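Mods, move this if it's the wrong board.
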Amino acid sequence: MKRIDIPSLLERLGIKTKRKGRELWACCPLHEERTPSWQIRDDADDPEKHGRWRCLGKCHTGGGPVSLVMAMLGLEAKQAWEWIKTGSVRETVPLEIRFDDNSPDLSRFLFGFQLPQGVEFSPLFDWPVPAAFYAQKRGITAEQIDKWGIGYAIDGRLAKRIVIPWRDSNGKLLGYTARAYTPNEKRYLQPKEEERPAQGVVYGEEHWPPPGVARDVLVVIEGEIDGLAVDRATGFCFGAACGSNFVPAHASKFSTFKRVVIAGDPDAAGNAMTNSIVRTLAHHTKVIPIELPVDSKGGRYDPARLAVECGNDELQRVIEGVL
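Not the wrong board. Structure tokens:
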């Protein structure tokens, strides 16, 4: 795959620019002005700067190619990336939204939940090296980056983290988990209360069969990266409680499957989750708790580590072995 062609993208968006070295300058497309104050980097040799834009005028906004399309066309991040790749968005009517200095922040009400500023989406080969290295170390593939709409942030509140969006079965954005890819940051960040994330979200439901279609096996895990391991190894539907413990809203969703395999982490929290699910669902569907293999130090693997250290085939063997 080629890197995003910035001049071509700007032409499609109707932004007329003048080149100054590796920067393209224009009047800011997000507010009215006569003197160009908006710049975007066109430097395919530097993936961390390529496509980065900012307004030096009155709106002081900035970001990357996806956030530019989001702002110009009123799309969610995954839709914006689809528009960049294909030139269209299925079942979506783009909106052109412009704000001035006195406009209140209406984005949450116009578009629903919004990711914090600074989150970017692109193919894995275009990611900053530390973020790409971490994703690959955890077994996350380029195909999964695209399928699940996973991004990264190099600035803002979620800086130096990969960002895993939570979406419902209609693809609507409801929240996120951000995992640090450098050792000096707090490992996980999730939405603040004032961001108003949805409650009772199950990570993975975005790709479940639609209502009315038979649902057979669901693998319940604790975290998003465990879920991505199950996705790679088995292709089964998976479900992870997002940002909270197991709650009744999760139970009602899990119960739509004929068989629920529980592959919790080998710790107190994992055991508590398993016990709660068994108590709640045992009379509604077939619940199958499993124990993952023991490692060389006597501890048990979690799904993600088992897939990375022993191979996807081993995780597949363990899960399919109880069915």
